[in-house]
Amino acid sequence: MKKLGFLLGFLLIGYVAAAQNYMVVDSEKVFKAIGEYNTALTTIEAEGERYQKQVDDAFAQLEQTFNTYQSRKGSMSASDRAATEQRIVERENEITKFQQDTFGEEGTMTRRRVELIKPIEDRVFAAIRKYATDNGYDVVLDVASNPTVLYYNPRVDHTDAVIAIVR
Prior knowledge:
About 75% of the residues lie in helices and about 5% in strands. The chain contains six helices and two strands. It has a two-stranded parallel ribbon. The termini are far apart.
C-alpha cells in the first residue's frame, strides 16, 4: 500500500510539473536593447574611471611622499621620523577610506548604480511579469543568469516580445 501511495504521489508531482506553462527570457538581451540602460552603464563607467583616477593619483602622491621620507629619514630626528610616519599612515588610511566609501558595498558607485539602473530593472521585470501573466505563463526562466539551462527550444523564448513591450 505504501508503494502505491508513493507511486501515485510521484505521478501527481510529475503531472503538476508537466502542467506548468513556462517561458524563457534572456534578460541581458532585453537590457542591452534599452538605450537608457546603455547610457546609464556608460555614465557609471565614466564616473568609476574618474573616481579610480583620483584614488590612483592619491596613492601615487603617497608613494612619492614615502620615497622622499625614505631618502631623508637618515638625517631626521626621531620625533620628525615618527611624525612623518604618522602622517603617511594617516594619509594612507584616508585614501583607503575614500576608496571604500566610493567603491565599497554601500559606496557612492553602488548607490549611483542603484539610482540609474534600478528603475530600468523594475520596468523590465514588470514587463516580463505582465507578459507572463497576460499570456498564461506560470514560470519564467532567465537564460542570461541561469547557467544550468543546457537547452531550450527557441519557441519558448519570448525575449523579443518582452523587448517590444519595454521599448
